[in-house]
User: Fold this.
Amino acid sequence: MNSSQYGRRSFLRWLATSPAWTLGGAGLLKAFATGARAEDLITAADQALNVLEFEAVARQNLPPWHYAYLATGVTDDSTLRANREAFARYQLRTRRLRDVKNVDMSVELFGTRWESPIMLAPVGSQRAFHPEAELATARAAAAQKHNFMVSTHSSTGVEAVNEALGRPAWFQLYPTDDWNVTRAVVNRAEKAGCPVMVLTVDSQNGALRDTLFKIRRSAPVKCTDCHVGGFVYSAVAGRRPMFEGLDMARVTTQLPLDMTWDVLPRLKELSSMKLVIKGIVTREDAELAIQHGADGLIVSNHGGRSEDSNRASIDCLPEVIAAVQGRVPVLVDGGFRRGTDFFKALAMGARAVCIGRPYLWGLAAFGQAGVETVLSLLRRELQIDMRQAGAASVAEITKDFLVER
Ligand code: FNR
Assistant:
């Protein structure tokens, strides 16, 4: 079913009378019903003042259940909110009269220099947001010269993504509980030239996405009308191009519950790709990851979509940086929407910062042009913030620029 068959207006009429309203935790649900006034929405990517303006257009363009998949978190969405709210606790100590005429935002990662520290986090199922899906995202990342990580659950196979990107993407791995399947997927990513494998360790099947489920449960269409096989993991994975041609009979989950740190050396034996662990939020796990061979870490709580820790990514970053002590690069994601958000993470010692939802808003709003504009706006904000703070390069962004309230 698509939005043309079941328009936003009829959904909102239904939502107004839906029992979903009586079920508490209604902040996000209210946001679904509120919408934006048509005259407040931008109608072309180049009208956007900031990336937040894409969200309202994405919400208007998508069927509500797809928008809910993009927007929501788990249980009361508290980790999702924490990811944004935490930035307010860190203030900037801006310096004056420094030479910031030329601002260098470039960073180096595994031998490659990127013009910007802003990278595109892996996000599966991008066809739910735009027909051109990951191809539009990859073309935008290429045009704007940003790093793109392709998900195991991508709607598009890694080879086609790499072609659109004009270089091999980083490949994000959900390991599954069938090692034959894991090996085949890893081999395929390596054969496609991917230089880095990102192992996601923070997202088990069965997350309590109550807000999404409330919207789905009461929606006038059933997800299974389109999603053949429903949301049983083997059926979800079976539809993904990265699992095409593989025997999925024994696969039951994306992240086995009995998987432990010894999976890292096993994965390293499978390929020569660098191994980055995504989803680290503590000093203990940072240390264990390095001891087991991790080449890099991404501090992440999956954009608040997995755990009800109520602990923001930006709050987890300092302890991970302190534990790592420069041995491997540390990236971070979760709630980054403004130039100053990136600046704060870089000041804490992050090598690079990833975004998820902002580029999906751009994609859902205006396809490739939307993603491109999201990236250029964020770069522009970071550049302005660096100038205003008095930092001419990423290396100059030190913790001296930060005060914690
Ligand atoms: C994700 N994320 C994710 N992560 C991952 O490792 N593999 C995946 O397939 C997905 N899929 C996915 C789908 C959707 C709709 C979202 C919003 C997110 C998590 C993603 O990589 C990243 O950690 C967060 O999106 C970062 O938070 P923000 O920027 O969305 O707040």
Remarks:
- The chain has 15 helices and twelve strands.
- The CA atoms of residues 312 and 371 lie 25 Å apart.
- The pocket of FNR is lined by residues 69-70, 83, 121-124, 151, 153, 172, 200, 278, 300, 302-303, 305, 333-336, 355-357 (CB under 6 Å).
- The longest helix spans residues 357-389.
